[in-house]
Structures are given as C-alpha cells and as structure tokens.
Amino acid sequence: MNRKHACGLILLPILLVSFSTHAQSSRKQGTAEVGKRLPRVAAFDMGNKVHSSDRILESGVKGLVVQFMTTYCPPCKEEIRQLVKEKGRLDRAKVRVLIVDLLSGYGQLKKYVAESGASVFPVIRDRTGSIVDQFELRKKDPEGNGLTMLVPVSFVVDEKGILRRICRGAEDDYVASIFKTLRL
C-alpha cells in the first residue's frame, strides 16, 4: 500500500491545525482504547437530530467508522470522498459511518456536506468541544501558538462496540483498511 508522506499546517488566530496524509495507528486516543468498548459519541446533526454511536451499534451492524474531520483539511476530504464513493459496499457489509465535524461553522459545514456528498452519512457537529476533549483531539502547541489538533482521526469499531483500530492520517485505500480491520 502506498502512503503519502506530507504534512500541512493551517495557522488560525487561536488554533494551530496540523493534518497528515501519513497514516499512523495508535492504541489509545483520550478515553478511547483499542480492545475496549468505544465510549459513546453523540451530538446533533445540522437538522437538530441526535445521532449516537451506541444507537448505530444497536441496529445490527457489523461495524462502525467514527470519522473525525474538518472541512478545510485536505486528507479529511480525501477520506470522506473514499467513504462516499464506497457507500454501497459499506452498506452491503453492514458497516455504518458517523462523521464528526470538529471545527467548522454551520454554513461552512452545510456547504461542504452538500458539495462532497457526505450527506449520505450522519454528520454531527461538536458544537461545545466536548467530543474533542473526551478523545483528547486538541493539545497545547509546544511552541505556545495556541492549540494543535491532528486530523483526520478515525475509530473503527466492531459489531460489539469494541474499538479495533485508531488511525491518524489519510490512507490511499482507506475503505479496504476498514474491511481488513473488521475482517469482512
């Protein structure tokens, strides 16, 4: 599998966002730990409907991908593009996707969802930052320039709600890696 090795930085007044196109696996991300039950992820979508990882997992799925992203992150856009393209394959395998937007304003997210086709999945907004804090997706920048957030980050969860993989950064064949992780 080919992997790109580029990183980009976007400097905002209070927030430094770092995104990577190099995929890295990890065993722990905040309260989430591989081999243990995924802590509940829940929030409102743009239509004020609540979506939660627990409810999705209770619906008889074979797996769940919780995809953390921002609208201005190129690797995030690539992963969303791959998920949208493979929606039929994911559905046939009973793998569901929950997209969690971390930093975008309502208008920005609405435009992105419409243009990217991401509306085929539930897209929730972390309006309060509680999801970011729960999974420690935001850290103080070591140089004192504000906060650093690494995106994309995704959690691949099996049918029992057990976190099987945490991936930071984009992969060339993201959907294939999901199927491999879930052994589907």
Sheet with most strands: strand arrangement: 3-14-13-8-9-10
Q: Count of DSSP helices?
A: 6
Radius of gyration from CA coordinates = 15 Å
The major sheet is characterized as: 6 strands, mixed
Mean pLDDT rating: 83
CATH topology type: Glutaredoxin
Strand content: 25-35%
What's the SSE pattern? EEEEEEEHEHHEHEHEEEEH
Q: Please report the first level of CATH classification, the CATH class.
A: Alpha Beta
Q: How many domains make up the coordinates? A: 1
The global form is globular
Distance between the termini: 18 Å
Describe the structure.
The protein is an alpha+beta fold. Helix content is 26%, strand content 33%. The chain has a single domain, classed as 3-Layer(aba) Sandwich (Glutaredoxin), CATH 3.40.30.10. The chain has 6 helices and 14 strands. The strands form 4 sheets. A 6-stranded mixed sheet has the order 3-14-13-8-9-10.
How do you describe this structure in short?
This protein has about 180 residues and is an alpha+beta fold. It has helices at about 55, 75-85, 85-90, 105-115, 130-135, 175-180, and strands spanning about 5-10, 15-20, 25, 30, 30-35, 40-45, 50, 65-70, 95-100, 125, 140, 145-150, 155-160, 165-170.
Task: Summarize the helices and strands and which ones pair or pack.
Elements: E1 7-11, E2 15-20, E3 24-26, E4 28-29, E5 32-33, E6 42-44, E7 50-52, H1 53-57, E8 63-69, H2 74-85, H3 87-92, E9 95-101, H4 106-116, E10 123-125, H5 130-134, E11 139-140, E12 147-151, E13 153-158, E14 163-168, H6 174-182
Parallel strand pairs: 2-12, 8-9, 9-10
Antiparallel strand pairs: 1-2, 3-14, 4-5, 6-7, 8-13, 11-12, 13-14
